Amino acid sequence: MEERVLQTQIIYGPVNSRRLGRSLGVNILPTEQKVCSFNCIYCQYGFTSQKCIHNDIDGLKLPIPAEVAEALMNSLPAVGDLDAITLAGNGEPTFHPSFRQIAEAVSRLRDRNKPGVPVCILSNSSTVNESSVQEGLSFIDRKIMKLDAGRENTFQKTNRPRPGITLKKIVDGLARLENVEIQSLFYSGPVTNASPEEITAWLEQLSLINPVGVQIYTMDRVPADHRVGPLDKSELEQIAAEARARLPEADVRVF
Ligand code: SF4
User: Fold this and answer.
1) Could you tell me the distance, in angstroms and rounded to a whole number, from the CA of residue 40 to the centre of ligand 1?
2) Which end of the chain is more exposed for a tag (fewer CB within 10 A), N or C?
3) Pocket mutation for ligand 1, best pick of 35, 36, 37, 128 (most atoms within 8 Å of C-beta)
């Protein structure tokens, strides 16, 4: 597996994304370090710093909304055909204090320059209950939100969130979002979220959320904790079959 490096600019790509096609990335987090409220066991960017885990973001160099808008405006005319414009990058995009304004600006620039191309977000779901984040998400066409576990204990061991973030709060918030898509990464190792009991619990949470889509995948980069590893494609297909049976109207895909 390859190592993943941090994005070094606000706009990156277009990249050929497994899940989104030809996607122009928008990174609204610092270029020197990952900024995230999770510290996932499988994170491709390595472990999250203790400062971020304790929500100490003083001194981080975050781009202001005008800088993001200018960078996107300069990029869009020359990028060619796109399947997506995606807020992702060096951590959790909704963590930015001006996320709502940035989401609105990205949506407006898309309307002007690439009408019909969906604005997407890859989020870890940890901020889904914050009202300003919900306002920001209303500007996003495809809200692709993380849910890797169905049990609190497994969520804590897998995603290792900032203190106070619980699976129950996240599931409650996701259940209130319209047209939400769930992204779930499954892995194996001394801790796993892919045993039959774990999948049963995960399916129960999916039923509460009722997503329009479910993206199932595994690790394809070097993980933060080297004791965990990827699942086989056949194991992912089995999980997908169970998700389709539970949610017959959702678009469930393996990547
Ligand atoms: S949510 Fe994403 S960026 Fe944050 S620690 Fe997990 S995998 Fe890494």
Assistant:
1) 5
2) N
3) 36
- Look up the CATH number of the domain holding residue 48: 3.20.20.70
Domain membership flag for residue 212: yes
pLDDT at 167: 98
The number of domains in the chain is 1
Does residue 7's CB lie within 6 angstroms of at least one atom of ligand 1? no
* Residue 93 within any structural domain of the chain: yes
Q: Is residue 3 part of a domain?
A: no
Kindly report the three-state secondary structure assignment for every residue of the chain.
CECCCCCCCCEEEEEEECCCEEEEEEECCCCCCCECCCCCCCCCCCCCCHHHHCCCCCCCCCCCHHHHHHHHHHHHHHCCCCCEEEEECCECHHHCCCHHHHHHHHHHHHHHHCCCCCEEEEECCCCCCCHHHHHHHCCCCEEEEECCCCCHHHHHHHHCCCCCCCHHHHHHHHHHCCCEEEEEEEEECCCCCCCHHHHHHHHHHHHHHCCCEEEEEECCECCCCCCCEECCHHHHHHHHHHHHHHCCCCEEEEC
Per-residue confidence (pLDDT) for residue 47, from 0 to 100: 86
Range(s) of the domain holding residue 119 = 11-254
CB of 43 closer than 6 A to ligand 1? yes
pLDDT at position 117: 98
Q: Tell me which residues of the chain have a pLDDT lower than 70.
A: 1-4, 51
165 lines ligand 1 (CB under 6 A): no
The ligand 1 atom nearest the CA atom of 48: 5
**pLDDT tens digits for range 17-61:** 999 999 999 999 988 888 999 999 999 988 888 767 777 777 788
What residue owns the CA closest to ligand 1's atom 6? 40
pLDDT of residue 52: 74
pLDDT score at 41:
96
